[in-house]
Specification:
The structure is a homohexamer.
Chain A: H1 13-21, H2 24-33, E1 45-46, E2 53-64, H3 81-86, E3 93-98, H4 110-118, E4 123-126, E5 129-130, H5 133-138, E6 143-145, E7 147-148, E8 157-162, E9 166-168, E10 171-173, E11 178-181, E12 186-189, H6 194-216, H7 229-245
Helix pairs in contact in A: 1-6, 2-6, 6-7
EC number (chains A, B, C, D, E, F): 4.1.1.112, 4.1.3.17
Cofactor (chains A, B, C, D, E, F): Mg(2+); a divalent metal cation
Subunit structure (chains A, B, C, D, E, F): Homotrimer.
Chain lengths: ~250, ~250, ~250, ~250, ~250, ~250
């Protein structure tokens, strides 16, 4: 079992801020332009759609449980990998649980989530179920799951590894990947291209704001979405003026 | 590829109004009385459950994509059938997308929806996913989908046809069918029986309002739901008096 | 076809009250401690997540329909088992429908639910669909379903039995089992252990409130969750003082 | 729990023989002509596709198991409903198990099947799994299942009732229904129309044999399939001559 | 509804022969080298795994049925699109049915398949069910389906179009695409690259035959699979000698 | 990424032989007696149902792929974990692949399987797909998969780890677990109890052979299955005589 390597998280505060303001739809488009087709986690729902999430992936992998391993009701904080992960996760990290899409029991609960939030974690993502979901909806902590389930995780899950590459929602998540969430869901960005993706996504949204204003005003999409040269020239002018205004 | 025939949409304003006030549950019952068992689109959710939708089906059919057709990130408004549909849909029409139930990428997005709303479209229905769902929840436009997904449609969909018979949510939708949506979901009514269905559904809801008032007041369902002759006589009297009151 | 035996429902009012205040997550943990692994109904959603539900299971079993049995649009209150159940359910009972997880038509509707509420029923649970869901969201009646569907139940369901053991959401439900629901979902408690489960769940939640307050205050989970002897001693002291305060 | 009423099985030997010679495809068509749309059990496979099965349904219903009921490894032949069914099933009956489509453990095994075969049963149908499938493939006993699974049934199933209406493969099966199987699968025929269905199916196959001989000889389907008057006249002649030949 | 354009099918006999000898696994690899990721039809089974299939796609599209369209038991050969397709398909064409993956009724049967075989069709592919599967297993006609089902197609399917782009098994199939089947399943090759794919696949299989002989003789895969320069040199020598031998 | 610890495989030859002769059904029962409920891999099929498989688990874990990792058509034998596993697996080991149940591309192929067979591997198990399945059916190598698929694995899989605990077919598989397969499927036995399970399973099958002979001869299951004291005494006598005979 591998418990992961030291982690370097070095996005600039400006990039963090851009990612926080950009939609997962736009980020996914920028990733597709770079050849990435499968980066949005499928089948998850936001328990706090009003919160945005940006952080670095800290992964936790579950296998199916078996009666000779970890089938306790009370957990041992010295050996249980789930518990070790809770006390290992750090500032600005998002706990991403590979629960194999299994929703016949929970994969995490409210007290543990409170602890990782206190340790500075930026959010929680699982492609399994969560218990205590009513409490999660009250908590200021971005959380994404597949379904609620009241049963404690040990009934179906055996935590095996942390900080290894995992699958979550059908998508590869590598430790240290940048993970961004909004009300639509969660997108994973390979760390080495996160700055460039954030910058281009920010630009794209400015352009689309302009496109949308034209469409709202009655324009056809022809020449406007995608924009032709004339529309791009108008956009430059609009943007220049916006700059002057502010 | 077929782009459809001229469309005649000729429901009376009174029928439109009745359909707007009647629940999809009642309409489905009226259709069952006429022999139609499968007219409610399965597995969809309303993004704007507070809005009612009534219109004529304008269908758009997607096939799976392939790397030699339409796998662009930017779309060509002159050839892409999705884009042609956006600029072809008309007043009082509902865009119904056959996305084969596929939710591994979106089937439509916010800017295009803004455009069809501006063209007078009455709503949007897809048995696939949508992107920009947070923006859709802000938009005054009835929208029904299977799931949110941030990825742009070209990753899994290739738009092929418009205004051909399609399947959506496991139900046949013919161009020109009347499409009605409420918070429960979407029902499809063959155009030639829409007036009669609307009228009978309206009558049925009046009767059920009376039945419900009796049940609320403590009545058993026996003799009341369904109503026997005595209850029907009471109902006639109640209705007569209601008329006098108003 | 079996229409069930006389039912004795004899939980104390204090137990009822404890069950109403305890989460399904805690109850599920107490049941797991007693060896029960599969007691939380999977895949259901609360239509009224703001209401709590406690009652005794009154079961209703549906088989697939066939054109020679019960395929009417209007129902016969003298022979249709669904209708007989509506007029048989009693005070503090929860109607639990085994709809085989089938959601291609509804399994119950609003007028019947109004009637069972008037008869004193404590809630409604179905692993199929419901129609009139917008009305259910307005009604002061805890209701749990798998999905909405406008189509009336006779299109796919044939009501066969009442008050026999059934499956619902993948879980055994016996007539007279105690059924508890909160915003997370529904848990089934065998009647003969319900008092003990309620008592221990109540105690567990007190302890977890203390644990959570420590974690919120910055404590590690080590020694605290699960609590070691030192924490348990602190908890006793805390609880004693809480008692003094009140 | 209901253990069923006395059963009268009174098809003539000639009807039995016709059903044995007719395909489930033809029988399903005859049932559709009488208005029955859903009589073929979905998702099952024949373990002995070389054997034909005709008999009367003897149903057995399973609910999900729970740790306080029937979770033994060894079964009690005096109380376990599965075991009671094994010693209750009679001559020419087909054991039809409603296993809720659940395949995470078996629903029956080889020793019990040997016993019911010895009691004169005509076959075994389950929409769950079977264990000992290699032995079933060696046994002269028509058997239809959804999947193999080595785990004994008590891990997921709790036998509740026998000879009640059940669902199997999504189809209603009433005790005493006529059940017919071939290599394609299993069809259920309401007992009161079985003679007429058998007779018409027999006639239909004769006609289709003639149609097929024409299509094989190069004929278009036009006028032939379905047959027009000219083809029907040829068929009468062909059939008359066949009669003379034999 | 579109019934398709004239079709030009112009692969050389040598290419046909190469495709007949090459596995779908190898063809899929050659397509991946050209950027095609999704060309193998998922979830189908060969009813005649002993036969190879090569031909040009002739597509047939089904929508869900409805009681006001095509819900007959007997079909009209003049208007029913399924029947029109049967009498329109030509030499070397493979009938590819888009049945939306729906297996609750058949999508085609034995008499129609006999007719299209007589018209020179090269095979039959459907992502729905077939009836008369026992007869199909006896017929010298390559056939690929998702499941058997005895019920006639009109219960769930309404044939709409022929020779339009469709989805089948999750893959785009365009009229005129080259369709190849072996015991593993079916691959679709865009017509304009079929010659080049066939040639390279043929070469790849020769090389893999050599690689396999080395691995069988005890070689590691290192340097051999994929082959390094030394192995490629050995292969050239082996191939040259094979040529001399023959 | 963890590539596993040294492996000690120390079952006696007699135990190996017993496991080879015992059915997975019997082994699963013995495991259930020891408290293990979930040890039979669900949803798999044997490509060579005529072969028995006994060996020690050598696990290989795949995550979803992404365009920046391992998305090559040709594989690098020095870095690709799949390829490293092929050259690391040893005598009597069974390669167990955790493919997340994903069947939209293969998880392994024929040349690699030939190599591991040459290295002494005892079999291959994957809960994903395999390509070259026609060749696998010809190969003397026990192989269990979920489905065939011609597409090479890199399109959906990224090999991450070997010899870590994995899930396969919904069951935990630990490196070194004993893995047994027959025509029904695959069961996993924790290594430390394998000797005892093998011994008791062997005994159980002897007893069941006796029980079956009685049932075949017309006995009721009462007193015989499960056997009461009288039957057990008969069995002892029968077994003693069998011993004398041989």
């Amino acid at each position: 079992m591998a418990y992961g390597a030291p982690r370097t998280h070095d996005l600039s505060p400006a990039t963090f801020e851009k990612l926080r303001q950009t939609s997962t739809a736009t980020l996914t488009s920028q990733l597709l332009k770079r050849g990435f087709r499968n980066v949005f986690l499928g089948g998850l729902q936001a328990l706090r759609p009003d919160l945005r999430m940006v952080g670095y992936a800290f992964t936790l992998r579950y296998a199916p449980t078996r009666e000779d391993v970890g089938f306790e009701v009370e957990y041992d904080n010295e050996t249980n990998v789930q518990r070790l992960a809770v006390e290992a996760i750090g500032e600005d990290e998002v706990l991403v649980i590979d629960a194999r899409g299994e929703t016949r029991a929970a994969s995490f609960g409210h007290i543990l989530a409170t602890r990782i939030k206190n340790r500075g974690a930026a959010g929680l993502v699982s492609d399994g179920a969560l218990r205590d979901t009513p409490a999660f909806r009250e908590m200021e902590f971005p959380t994404y799951i597949k379904a609620p389930h009241a049963t404690t995780s040990s009934v179906v899950h055996y935590p095996v590894d942390m900080n290894v590459p995992v699958g979550c929602g059908g998508v590869l998540v590598m430790p240290g990947d940048v993970v961004v969430g909004d009300a639509e869901g969660v997108v994973v960005i390979p760390a080495r291209i996160a700055e460039s993706v954030a910058q281009d996504a920010f630009e794209q949204e400015l352009l689309e704001e302009f496109v949308l204003s034209k469409v709202r005003a009655g324009s056809s999409i022809k020449g406007v979405y995608p924009p032709d040269e004339k529309t791009l020239a108008e956009y430059s002018e609009w943007r220049r003026r916006s700059g002057e205004d502010s």
